[in-house]
Design goal:
82% of the residues lie in helices and 0% in strands. The protein has 2 helices and no strands.
Length: 90
């Protein structure tokens, strides 16, 4: 195994770890999110809290999509390097 291949595997492991942490964080936020109807002004603060939670979930979801795309591209690259090394091209 060459240095390039191992470097790509290490980056892949870091991206996988970041994705797992983001999935856990999003799951924790989803547990706090509630589906209910705010009927009066006394519960308006609950609506603001839920809006904040929803915004955080949306932001984490966007980053998860980016990490997922990067992870897939890196996986294809690692596979290409592995095949290239096996065929003696690299």
């Amino acid at each position: 195994m060459t240095g390039t291949f191992m470097s790509l595997v290490v980056v892949e492991a870091v991206l996988t770890g970041a994705a797992v942490v983001m999935f856990l964080y999003r799951g924790m936020l989803d547990m706090k999110e509630e589906d209910h109807l705010i009927l009066d002004n006394a519960e308006a603060h609950l609506a603001r809290e839920q809006a904040t939670i929803r915004h955080r979930v949306d932001v984490v979801s966007k980053y998860l999509r980016v990490v997922g795309v990067l992870w897939a591209v890196l996986l294809v690259t690692i596979f290409g390097v592995w095949v290239g090394q096996g065929l003696g091209l690299i």
